[in-house]
């Protein structure tokens, strides 16, 4: 959606929505009215006594933004309720800050929100400290500073306290910010998922209409609060009192479900705002792509309402007896939270879960996603005790970096399962470097999911199969699986499927083998996969499961069975699955459903699959999630000896000159700023300079052509190795000048480096997703083998390790090579990507690693002018 007004809509601690935006001279009267409206106590705390000329102060606060001044205001329905501003001091990195909030808006978080946005604005201007004074008795302001999460100092004595607020956000700040956002978001979403009252606008007596279906679902679901219908042509529908408009209802509903034609939606939403409705669900379609959509967003923002949709199937919360959807049938209560952009996916998923007897804790169909998104539900589910598993269907990411942080936080305690979709908001672009060519939208999306601990699946069937395993079985401690079967072929199929999904089949311990030998006939196979033969009854099969589950070298069991004349061994599985403490999944060849519950007397004990491949896929998904969850959630490290200011200055100079691809010496300097080990690099603009440079280097040397538009120099004949004499240097440079003409800029000379394994490390930056760090085989293997892995910056130490282990060749790659040195390069390149968003592409290829370190032999960097956004700043999607 296009932004309908300047600034950002932000949810306060009580769920109310305000607009936060920079102040302008046209706001002077509003700033003056705010200060004049402060009561005597607040005025004393703000001005330490007499305020002086409020008109002059207001004009200064609302002055034009510039390098020495910044101000933001919070507006509630177009009325200014708070301001925060700074004035830069003699030190350009320091500014004095002040804050004023209307007494009627205090204790709702207005001051904290204003400071968050002012901090973001100041940091973008290079300010690193806020200073000021606060009265010792101003406990509210002191608490705001203490709770903000930024480092601060305050003088301990005297009636007037001096403070310094350090604008260096770290994990404490991001965590405090995320918790404030969670509290506010949950408060605002209560009107969506736990409303006290509901009105269906566009309700109809016609059975085939959406408005009728929504009203019937609310009635059939047993919604206990006041329920109203809005239809100008009826006084009552299905026993529900009806009014001509929401303005004429006897009381204001907390939630309005809008089912009117598209053209009537903007006016309807505006009427809801005037009436005081807290949230609207717009089921109507046909708004996006026309002027209707921005009008709806503007109305919702003006009146501080949360907005779901449009073009959605509605929302449901069975625990609150809320079914404000037009999905067929009931929405059963259960542990699965669902957010989906596709209404059809939501309906299909509900049908599949219903057949398994698995219900949902909440369902939100976001549709065209004007406001409420997957990020909101991730916040809702964090403390929602009814939600144990989160399911996502997302076709786009409005704020992927925030999504990654929220999903990672939720996945630490609750599994998050997402369907991979083919499209994102990022278009695949033609790439000039190997790194960027590897960074397709699918690679970026998968990196986002993997780092956040999201279980990504490709089909609805795989999703349901994974949810079934998560619902009824514990997480495994590792990936060691024992396959136990009474049908040898089923066991072989299961073993093959396990191998495809990253699961290992270890041999059982000697003690376990002895126990199995005592139970089974001589022709049984005791090596994993274990074939009990078809001649065992259910009791013997169960005893075999007991023996295998007792093996400390086994983390999970797949029990694959077929019924025989001796009985059905499957009946022995539920008791073991219920009480073993290790996951036990069943495979029943021939069952009708691809996945079904396998019950005991207490209910579903585990999941039973028709195909061993499906069971192995589900177990593989669960195992990878368990491994991610068990890994430490370490913060991104900050490498030593990083000269960020020099690097930023270099990039600014190049951008000011209109440069996009950095020159070779600029590339070398930028990499040195971040401590990336590079080969010694010299430059010459003609053959005489090249000969002179040769005399300063230890031969043999390599010559590389610097040619406009030629990025892959080897393919164009722009690299000559093992040069030792002046004659060869002159000959090579003359040939390049003849061959490349005006596009030739000069020659790079470097000493030949020791041979080693050639790797690729790079960055591909995207305006939506941020920077992707790519690692893979380099040199001639880059395109030939295409063995690469990727993670989004900033990398944690765990992320770097997973990159190193993420290649197909990783198991045999390093051997005697210096893995630690490559890991350090990954972390340093990640830090470069984090601090320099202007770096659109970076390619270290080859990065040569030996047993004693690594060295970048060739590098290229492309930059673009960018104004970095603050991805974690609190603001609603508009």
Automatic annotation (TrEMBL):
GO function term, MF aspect, one: acyltransferase activity, transferring groups other than amino-acyl groups
Key word Cytoplasm present: no
InterPro entries: Acyl_CoA_acyltransferase (IPR016181), ATP_grasp_subdomain_1 (IPR013815), CoA-bd (IPR003781), GNAT_dom (IPR000182), Ligase_CoA_dom (IPR043938), NAD(P)-bd_dom_sf (IPR036291), Succ_CoA_lig_flav_dom (IPR032875), Succinyl-CoA_synth-like (IPR016102)
Keyword set, alphabetical order: Transferase
SUPFAM superfamilies listed in its UniProt record: Acyl-CoA N-acyltransferases (Nat), Glutathione synthetase ATP-binding domain-like, NAD(P)-binding Rossmann-fold domains, Succinyl-CoA synthetase domains
Annotated Pfam families: Acetyltransf_1, ATP-grasp_5, CoA_binding_2, Ligase_CoA_2, Succ_CoA_lig
Domain N-acetyltransferase: start-end pairs: 18-170
Keyword Hydrolase: no
Domain of life: Bacteria
Stored PANTHER family: COA BINDING DOMAIN CONTAINING PROTEIN, PEPTIDYL-LYSINE N-ACETYLTRANSFERASE PATZ
Protein name: GNAT family N-acetyltransferase
